[in-house]
Amino acid sequence: MSSHVGEKLKEIRLLMGMSQSKFCDYLGIGVGSLKKCEVGDSEPSFGVMEKIANHPEVGKYTIWLLTGNTIPEAGQVSPATEAPNIDKNKQQVTPRPPMSEQDFVDKVTDSLMMYHYFDWIKINKEKIDFEAAGKYMLKQVGPLVGAKSSMEKMLDKTGNE
Questions:
Q1: Which of 82, 114, 132 is the last residue of a domain?
Q2: Does 93 score more than 60 pLDDT?
Q3: Which of 160, 157, 152, 155 is nearest to 16 (CA)?
């Protein structure tokens, strides 16, 4: 792996607007590991890379993290293709607008196609209704996103991270 993987992880984290600890909680990895990677003291372990590759939101950066390349048709992108306005020096990004239902459905479709592309799942394209699958995912994930957002707002008000 490139010695720039830590820089790339930081770019992803900043794009998502998360602190190191929130990003680590989100991925299920240790903060110390991320800090060492971001400053270039170490490379992420196989376990960390596996969690990134399998994460529903961050997995789309796997190919870019490992090779520096993207495969948009397989849902593999880089932060630059999603938010070219990132300012790495200020460590801030412009907040993303809320995702519409159709955008969510499209993201689920892209994710399913990426998993199919890498043979992680087998999709019978003649039988699956991607629109219905995306709406089902929205129905299942929507309450979780709302609860997480409410909890983050409450924690921000109390001054906790």
A1: 82
A2: no
A3: 152
